[in-house]
Task: structure prediction
Amino acid sequence: MSWVLLRGLTREARHWGDFAERLARTLPGSASAATRVLALDLPGNGVFHREASPATVGAMADFARAHLLARGLAPPYSLVAMSLGAMVAADWAHRYPQEIERLVLINTSMRPLGRASERLRPGNWLPLALVAARWSDAKYAERVIHRITCNRTTSMEQDIAAWTRIRQDAPVSLANAWHQLKAAAAFSTAAPLARPTLVLSSAADHLVHPRCSARLAQAWQAAHHEHPWAGHDLPHDDADWVCRRIAGWVDGG
Result:
């Protein structure tokens, strides 16, 4: 069984940190060699940062499917995805349900289950506009992103230094960031998924209002757990909590 991790807007595999290893150790049956956890970059990010980001979430899902097959990883897959990545996962499961075993959707939003002011909270509009204006200033951008998305600050300076190196090593173009933002804003889905789905959200998410996840879980009759203090980047703020919730859900708890 392959567990595939999908990140959000302008983020890549390295932003998961050691989450893949933690999840692999926590999952039921993790001692089995058949269980693998891998992080996949979306087009325009990470190892694919030189490619153009597609204009739609559906095209991102098609890219991810094709890349896994090219690597010899056949479905079904279990997807753990956050923010924009969770929209990609939802589209994938809607159009190719036979390829998806399970979905874990973290701090995401989609029309019509969230208003524009909930999907991107207004307090972030100016800071993100300033980031766009200083896009080539990697350290400034990553400091603002950390402030907006993370509530655990004990390793803040180390995080910012690591994220700055990632940004300098595989820079996401401003054009690709804009394409990803437009694709996320346009993404819409209302039909419940045909696959088992777990929704995880953060009560103190300053980027996306947690109501978006609550409405999604209710509309799709999905299991839902809300973290009491973490920010938008829930796997960063409390990776062990996320892993325990996923493992307990898989194990039927």
